[in-house]
Amino acid sequence: MHAPGDVRVEDVAEPRILKPTDAIIRLSATCICGSDLWPYRGADEITEPLHMGHEYAGIVEEVGSEVDSIRPGQFVIGSFFASDNTCEICRAGYQSSCVHREMLGTSGAAQAQRMRVPLADGTLVATPGVPSDDLVPSLLAASDVLGTGWFGAVAAEAAPGKTVAVVGDGAVGLLAVLSAKQLGAERIIAMSRHESRQKLALDFGATDIVTERGDAGAARIKELTDGLGAHSVVEAVGTQESMMQAINATRPGGHVGFVGVLHDVVLRGDDIFMTHVHVHGGPAPVRRFLPELIDLIWTGQIDPGKVFDLELPLDQAADGYRAMDERRAIKVLLRP
Amino acid sequence: MHAPGDVRVEDVAEPRILKPTDAIIRLSATCICGSDLWPYRGADEITEPLHMGHEYAGIVEEVGSEVDSIRPGQFVIGSFFASDNTCEICRAGYQSSCVHREMLGTSGAAQAQRMRVPLADGTLVATPGVPSDDLVPSLLAASDVLGTGWFGAVAAEAAPGKTVAVVGDGAVGLLAVLSAKQLGAERIIAMSRHESRQKLALDFGATDIVTERGDAGAARIKELTDGLGAHSVVEAVGTQESMMQAINATRPGGHVGFVGVLHDVVLRGDDIFMTHVHVHGGPAPVRRFLPELIDLIWTGQIDPGKVFDLELPLDQAADGYRAMDERRAIKVLLRP
């Protein structure tokens, strides 16, 4: 990405092992993230051309001398933060705050044919075997959007008997619906005004659709919950309006799980003091959930790959960005 | 309180039963709260004279026709929010957000000889018998400062094996130390630069004292915790500096329990997104904890009444406010 709106597919230097804990993988599929649209739309500054992409699944080609558990030939999935998975923070389940974390992206861009993954043993999880082609989109989804939606639902404490509302109908929001369903939520309210996304939300387990937004959206959630608000609300957008919509849709004592990358969001003391909500979120520690998510996909219990409604060859990545920017596509899968 | 700094003890109309769910109690003791200092110092506007006080323990004198479980002659304790204790929010443990809550204070001021308590059945908890005089300060403490410190420690998820830091050395902060100890915390770091308060903190179970504040205070907590931060931090002040000190002293995945009434506090998205902390707090649902706290006091397991380091007759209330304002007293008990 050279500038907002300017995505080009170019030949760059081949990735290579830089540290003995690295691995090189050949991507089976990659994709465009909702968060890639922030710089695309000019909301994040671009000072030099960016190698884009942080969602990946593929075959290990080469590993560094200190890599133990990951071997060439394995099909692996990793998250957008490389983590050692052994430090105290990782062991507590917050691998995206690992003391040795490295953000994938510039150093190991995934919108490519091959990429370098640091801390391979801690970061990558191998599938039970090389998957058939039809499983690849779902496995790729686990790399970020599913893992992020799942974390949102976990942070919001979605559970049996609870009413869960989801703010945001992008891939993460839709997969938060799927996650809440898997976590046993009784009632799942998807907030969306786009028909195709509403359909997918219902398909993933939503029981109600709310089209109102902002204060009206929060008021509608209260109406649907005896005036109390939802037990759990997942925020999957990242704007001031969506965050307040999430907080105001939550009952006292309820939980807001926020996973949209916050942009210029400011919470006043009163927003969190008198509301009695629990607030938790941030960059999802996808690594925590990968073994379970891979198992659910491998055994056919969930099909998160449905969020990919446009598939393009990697060299048409620019078309993919346009389709997502114009909301013609929920999420674009790129085949290298 | 007629104006900032202007507290007078005056004869007012006797409280009386206004609703069939009310009770009238004769106060055995009452006290001055740290939050009473906000209007005293001019931080909260005073548009008409305020009847002060929301912490109370005493003998029931009269109950309304619909009061079932509370009877005249009982010694009772209640919280600063009256609650029905039957609605869904109360049953979830958030009585201070009860759908029928009424704030004690103006309508039923506790810095008095007698007061009206609404929703008596839901609000008041009777002790096993009429306590001896030496137990009264501790039972009174349960009404707010102990219950609030306890909620802060619960919201911060203080538990065995954890390191808990407490920001604020007022009565609530000191009793959050006691609460963390009771909840089994392994290490408890009290942040205080006042010798008498440090002593009480150590007496209540603190294992470490940190005198630094703000960013330096947070940095010191990180130093003491292998660079990671505390698992649990209780915020018991309510200013921007103390709230940020609490957030920045917490490790990723850790919990901030904030119970200081927030004044002009603003959290930026980045303060809570990249830090991965859990944030929860607000007006403590003291009613949730009262039965357990009364039991701990009645059986002599805790002695929270130690926070009262000055006792005055009610008619010297103005002196009590001055002593707390000038930090000559941690907390002032008033005998009606």
From TrEMBL, chains A, B:
Superkingdom in the source lineage: Bacteria
Pfam families (alphabetical): ADH_N (PF08240), ADH_zinc_N (PF00107)
GO molecular function: oxidoreductase activity; zinc ion binding
Co-factor requirement: Zn(2+)
Matching InterPro entries: ADH-like_C (IPR013149), ADH-like_N (IPR013154), ADH_Zn_CS (IPR002328), ER (IPR020843), GroES-like_sf (IPR011032), NAD(P)-bd_dom_sf (IPR036291)
Family according to the record: Belongs to the zinc-containing alcohol dehydrogenase family.
Protein's recorded name: Threonine dehydrogenase-like Zn-dependent dehydrogenase
Species, as recorded: Kribbella pratensis
